[in-house]
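Table S2 (continued). Query chain:
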Amino acid sequence: MDIIAPTYEVRQAGKFVYIIPGEVVAWKRVNPGKGSYRAYDDQKRAKTAIGHQIQNQHGSRPLYKGILHAEFQFFMPIPLNLHKRKDLIAGTLYPTKPDFNDLVKLIVDVCQGILYENDSCIASALIQRRYDDGQGLRTQFYFQEVK
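Corresponding output:
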């Protein structure tokens, strides 16, 4: 899946919020390949595109150091069978797949080397999957150094 939406940023009460517009992408296992010894990463293009968007938003800021707290919000599509109730569920918690750990793993892996040295520095996280709130499908997140 190619992500061709523009990137933008939000400053929220001293936090730098990274936003990846477009359909939310969940992490998938690398395909071991059939009949060969080479593994194939089906998501290489998506990971590269997301990495470029994060790098563009981060700019020349230094890497985060020390212990980090992270907050992730994934805005998912409203299913067709719920469109009549769209105004009631917009922005509410999203109760089905993809699993939140697969959503976070892709972002955390892509951010390694762009925002921080190693993802082991993330000590706590708040993760929310929500229905689209009318501002479009997107992934938004921030990291905060814990003192």
